[in-house]
Amino acid sequence: MSDTAKTLEQSGSMVGRISLKSSLACFLAAFIWGTAFVAQKVGADAMAPIVFNTLRSILAFFTLLPLTLYRGHRRREDRKAGKVTAPYSKRDTVIGGIISGLFLFLASYLQQASIATVDIGKAGFLTATYIVLVPLINVVLTRRSSVKIWVSVAIALAGLYFLSISGTYRVERADVQLLVCALFFSLQIMTIDHFSEKADMIEFSCIQFLVVFLIGLVPTIRSLTNEMPALSAGSVVSLLYAGVFSSGIAYTLQAVGQKDADPTIASLILSLESVISAISGFFLLHQVLTRREVLGCVLMAAAIVLVQLPSGRAKPVEETTN
Fold this sequence. Notes:
mainly alpha; 14 helices
């Protein structure tokens, strides 16, 4: 059996499953992302999207670099001592990190470029449509699905709508950008799922941020040459939060959390960032939650609970006969 076939078989066996550790890691990532939209909005007002994303990525890289070097040192020492170490493929880690970094660059750039002109609630809703795209991609790759998962996705999507969209909805150019952004986030999630069995996810995450930085380096230099950002204390703090916490810590939690999880369930938990964003606004900014927003939060929470209820093993969507 080829490596790809083995990976798909392992992915299929994870359909409808997630460990407690993975759930907590994904929830913590969603919590950090949910409080980061304001930071991104402040950053969008202060500097060009490419500059913001490139700087936050290099901050994330240096945040993870000491831990990556330490883990590499420990791994070498364990091998010298004859200790059994966890399965790890340098090749898969590097290749996976590069691919994930490419998708992350495209997704984060489109999101940051759109946040400057779109309401934060709408941006959160359209970005989170990856909760529909991920199971679709997963079905194509594994030919497996679950009725419970699709019901949960539908409930979560309805919850996101009530939570994020109010009044008249008009399609704008930025909306299309955010939908494409959601597609790239979906591909990034599936990339992590594909390489999580053999890759060191801390090193994987470190590499993906380096890739995002290198891709954006030249455009950033050109942008800074033409116009220097109007930095303030608030924009610097926002950049640090987005770089260290939202990128360095949260995306690493995502990568670690997906290691023992169905990617669809992981994406549903990650989408709680929209709920957390609304709740944090209530507690920190004293923003009043409308009945519509409360209904959205309840539906999102119901979807997360439903998708994690125990059930039988998922069956193939389409079975072939000999």
